[in-house]
Amino acid sequence: MAINLDVHELLVLGDFYLLIRQARGEWENRDIKLIPYKRCLEDLIKNFKSIEFRYIPRFHNELADALATLASMLSYPGNTDIDSLEIQVRDRHNYCNIIAVEADGEPWYHDIKQFIEVREYPVHGDTDQKRTIRRVANGFLLSGDILYKRTPNLNLL
Length: 157
Fold this sequence. Notes:
single chain; 157 residues; 2 domains
């Protein structure tokens, strides 16, 4: 792909230390089945003015793992052009960006907290909503004014 896009300088990041060292030529490849792949890589390297292979530990390579997982889940016909992927780095988790104020102006947990405090259901709640509030309220604990989520190991969030 980089050759087709007329890229001249390439930085290859990888989390498999053995392959990165072999691609750099620092370590020798003795497996007879892998030698054709090494030759193919050497032929591809000739297409670039400069190419650098850099090792990144797996725990720093979460984005690549996520992208590889996404790529393995999608199937594309061979002649399909794939649009580029825009990635934004945010200063907080994504679920914080999608939390919105409820239509009544109260936070999402208001009905649960109200039920635990005074055992009252929402005024316009139907039977299904009331049953859901009862069931969900069992997973929470109210201490003073703070609502905690119970976890299976008895910790509170």
